[in-house]
Amino acid sequence: MQYLFKYMTLFPLLKGIHASLITQQTNIHEIFTLEDVVLYPHEISKKSIDSYSSFDLTFALPYHYQQTEYPNWMKKYVKLTMTPNLDLINENSHLQIHNEDGEVISSEKIDRNNHRVYRGDAFVTYTENSIGLLEKRWHKIGWARISLHQDGDLPIFEGTFSLSNDLYTVKTAKNYMLLKEAHEPEISASEKSMVLWIESNKPPKTLRKRSNLYLDNKCMLNSIYDEPTPLDQATFSYGSGEISAVEKLALSSSRIRLTNYIGDNSGCPKYKQVAYVGAALDCNYISMFESSSNATNHIISLYNRVSAIYEETFNISLGLLNVTIMGRTCPNENPKVSWNVACSSHYNISTRLKHFSLWRSGIKDSIALWSLFTTCRNTMEVGIAWYGVLCQDIIPKGPHSNWVSGTNVIASPANIEHIVLAHEIGHGFGASHDCTSESCKNESASCCPLSSTVCDTNEMYIMNPKSSISARKFSPCSIGQVCNNLKKKLVNSNCLKNNKNVSLISRRKCGNGIVEEGEDCDCGGEKGCKGNPCCNPKTCKFTKGSVCDDSNEVCCINCRFAPKNTVCRLSRDECDLVEVCSGTSSTCPRDKFKKDGTPCSNKSKCASGICTTRDMQCINHFNNSKGSCHGSCVLFCELGGTCIYSGLQNYFIDGTPCGFYGYCYKGNCIEGSYGKQLKSLLSGFKNWIFVIIFVLGLLLAFLINCIYNRCFSYVSQKEKVVDDGDQTIHIPIYTNHPYNYYNNIPNYIPHVQYDPYRHYSFNQRGFYYETNPNLSNNYQAYRYK
Questions:
Q1: What number does CATH give the domain 18-24+206-219+250-487?
Q2: Residue 248 has pLDDT above 70, yes or no
Q3: Distance between CA atoms of residues 177 and 31, nearest Å
Q4: How confident is the model at residue 8, as a pLDDT?
Q5: What is the spatial distance between Cα 530 and Cα 547, in angstroms, rounded to a whole number?
Q6: Which of 314, 367, 556, 672 could covalently link to 661 via disulfide, CB atoms 3.0 to 4.6 Å apart?
């Protein structure tokens, strides 16, 4: 109870935990035109390339990007082998266009055929200039993600591809000029020309700096605070840059704990999953584009690129389920879409995030994370996100808790937009910032180190507080942290979908790697099915004698159903049940857990398949914590006699006990029913059987006493003469009975004369009442609280 008043006093100030990004000048130094691109369709019979086609693109790199280690007479060629990205857009993906009043004026499904997006691999070979002959062998050295705008003899595409340690970006000259920053190079080329630049992994001269709680003294709670605040801190001296001893004690353990997970990806999906995402474009952002169609193309291409990072790292692809576009005219103020306002010095990115979070919570969908795209950078911040809010689509109940949901805001220059988006989505998965040379000097900084012995990550990775244009992957520590979050349910992953039986927007196609209706299997065409004895790549049917496909189904061994009771999913915890194959199906049963609240080791209880307690969850976050210090679902932990709000995870795991025999669900405490409460209450008695026996004994003694008194009183009345003058006989059992509160009166007292707030007596001459001395005048007795 000592924390209750402090919690009620300060909780309205705690809006959630977020990280923001700060920008400086970017570093695109040179732009070159890309010419002589040739498209080779894999299906020669097709006249044009559609969204389900596979093809190759070949071209020579501009002279400036030719490797100097090769002789002058050698020239490097690139081949991009592309297949359709069917995860990015599905049959439920839709586009909504709003007017300035926030009303939907157009809503339609996104037609995959209008947005040809592909993924694949990058190869290189070399040619001898004098005779122009290509080397016979292509060498695979990277990946590619592109959007195809025009096919035929003069193909036009946009996207990204990697060659070893170098990353290249391709844009149309028109789109580059529309989206470029003022300081970036100009280029003179036709609108349909393609331009190319390299995103080198060499450290740039200028860097974009993300604000960090301990590096930049930026707010991690809201714009008022410079530091996280213990709940019982008597005085507040923000802005001093000092961190209290309690905060140091709380946060210094975080870096040590994260070293245990470096490089451990065991908690990430073994088979690919899809996280559906949403994108909202405010009035400022849409004004950069000529049309809504151009803006949609840009967003789809952006997510196609970022999805490549998440697929390669976490085996999770991004599917764009909703694109919401606001009108070009910015309204003055609209409560329905309060985040859609013109750029202003009085409206910062933090406030925009809060308003966007509130708007997102009113949308019932299965979207993992929503991103708001804007061009407003009045405070130099280019991105902001809540920590650990994956699949958070319900606003937690409570005073002033209506800000946090699965959202982030992107206000980045176009050339690093993919880095900022990948970074902010990473925060949604619960990823912390990487350690830098600056944060490593601060023992209280909570960050992800390079290894167990080296702190500084050397500013190389996506989650780095300082990010360059060349950041392209997550650090081993970030990988371990995200996978551990998924494994231990530290973030909610219930909205992630399996990549199977995906419903496509348009016609199905054998060879695309997706098992669709009417197909037995699909291992990805002749190339993907090489060495696969189970599936016919031309018909997408099982080969003779086969009943399943080992490459796509976990309960399949040598093209036959795995034997009954073959383990297909191991238990990750004593509360997580082992799943076994049925022997009659190739599909592993869905992941099952013991019921929430089931007792487990160390006097703990199961919650979402994890054996845990409220105290244990606090100790996992703060090694020196004594445990939970409040009964809500917000993660408040006791540390050094103070109650501290955790910044790395906002809520207790779903299924964790809370309140009065309730359980947590997405930050809310769902109170248990009275029956469950009574059952829980009784189960708390160690000697409950003796209690029941004692109660039954009392009832039996009462019955015996009643029978005995009735018999003997009948005999005595025959022998005794009673003076019935003024003797009063009271009825003690029903006087002041709780029935009075419901006006439910004993049926043997005349109800026409009964007043529930009177004290009744009778004698043998007549029935009367008198004032009940046990009730107050305002008759508030028996009111249940």
A1: 3.40.390.10
A2: no
A3: 11
A4: 40
A5: 18
A6: 672
Q: What angle is formed at CA 696 by the lines to CA 690 and CA 698, rounded to 5 degrees? A: 105
**Contact (CB, 8 A) for 586 and 577:** no
Q: Structure tokens of 629?
A: 């210090």
Q: Would you call 644 exposed, middle or buried from its count of C-beta atoms within 10 A (0-12, 13-18, 19+)?
A: buried
Asked if the model's pLDDT at residue 560 lies above 90, the reply is: yes
Q: Would you state the structure tokens that stand for residue 541, as one six-digit string?
A: 């049917």
CATH code of the domain occupying 599-683 = 3.40.1620.60
- Which residues have a Cβ under 8 Å from the Cβ of 24 and sit 6 or more positions away? 206, 207, 208, 209
The two tokens of residue 10 are: 């300060």
**649 or 537, which is more confident:** 537
One-letter-per-residue 3-state SS of 119-157: EEEEEEEEEECCCCEECCCCEEEEEEEEEEEECCCCCEE
**How far apart (Å, rounded) are the C-alpha atoms in residues 195 and 185?**
12
Sequence-separated (6 or more) residues with CB below 8 Å from residue 425:
277, 306, 310, 318, 369, 371, 385, 408
Contact (CB, 8 A) for 473 and 309: yes
Residue 273 binned pLDDT confidence (cut-offs 50, 70, 90) = confident
For residues 418-437, give the mean pLDDT. 90
CB 197 within 8 A of CB 30: yes
Tell the residue number behind the tokens 């498209």, with chain if given: 39
User: Are β-strands 74-84 and 55-60 bridged in parallel, bridged antiparallel, or unpaired?
Assistant: antiparallel
Return d(Cα 433, Cα 207) in angstroms, integer: 16
The residue assigned the tokens 């348009």 is 506
**Residues annotated as binding site for Zn(2+)?**
423, 427, 433
Tokens of 245: 């001893």
The answer on pLDDT for 595 being more than 50 is: yes
Residue 761 backbone dihedrals phi, psi, to 5 degrees:
-140, 165
User: Could you state, in order of their start, the residue ranges of all structural domains in the chain?
Assistant: 18-24+206-219+250-487, 32-87+97-199, 599-683, 721-785
Q: With 70 as the cut, is the pLDDT of residue 727 above it?
A: no
Q: Which two tokens stand for residue 252?
A: 């210094």
Q: How many beta carbons lie within 10 A of that of residue 266, not counting itself? A: 13
Q: 3-class SS at 616?
A: helix
Instruction: Give the sign of the dihedral formed by CA 601, CA 604, CA 605, CA 609.
Output: negative
pLDDT, tens digit, 9 for 90 and up, residues 52-90: 888 999 998 876 666 545 555 567 789 999 998 888 887
Residues belonging to the binding site are 423, 427, 433
- CA dihedral sign of residues 573, 568, 276, 349: positive
Assigned token pair, 706: 């009643």
With a CB cutoff of 8 Å and minimum separation 6, the contacts of 720 are none
Q: Above 70 in pLDDT, residue 166?
A: yes
- Specify which of 19-33, 108-122, 198-212, 593-607 reaches the highest per-range mean pLDDT: 593-607
Q: How far apart are CA 19 and CA 110, in angstroms?
A: 32
* Rounded Cα gap, residues 382 and 210, in angstroms: 8
Amino acid at 605: K
Residue with tokens 């054998």: 510
Just list the catalytic residues. 424
CA distance 488 to 389: 15
Task: Encode pLDDT of 388-409 as tens digits.
Answer: 889 887 665 554 444 678 899 9
